[in-house]
TrEMBL record:
Signal peptide: none
Domain of life: Bacteria
Regions of compositional bias (Basic and acidic residues) in chain numbering: 38-68
Name the record gives this protein: DUF3886 domain-containing protein
Top-level taxonomy: Bacteria, Bacillati, Bacillota, Bacilli, Bacillales
InterPro entries assigned: DUF3886 (IPR024980)
Region described as Disordered: spans on this chain: 1-20, 38-82
Compositional bias of kind Basic residues: 1-11
One Pfam family from the record: DUF3886
């Protein structure tokens, strides 16, 4: 006698093919997408603020440099004018 092949339940295969988006309500998915957009926007704004703060800090440091620091950074050499 030939052995009969056992058929796997098709229900299990269908469950494997379903994605998380299929299982969730469309309203919940849209809320999650909106939240994701808001978080990305907040992150972008935070990065811009940090860059602006660093620019101001650099400008302030440059403004408060001593004469010696400015002289050391200068590309001019006093030997050239001797």
């Amino acid at each position: 006698m030939a052995k009969k092949k056992q058929q796997h339940p098709t229900k299990k295969k269908q469950e494997e093919k379903l994605s998380l988006g299929d299982l969730l309500n469309e309203e919940i998915v849209s809320k999650l997408k909106n939240t994701q957009k808001e978080l990305k926007e907040q992150e972008r704004v935070e990065i811009e603020r940090e860059e602006e703060r660093k620019r101001k800090e650099r400008k302030e440091r440059e403004k408060n440099k001593s004469f010696e620091e400015l002289l050391n950074e200068s590309p001019l050499k006093w030997n050239d004018y001797k």
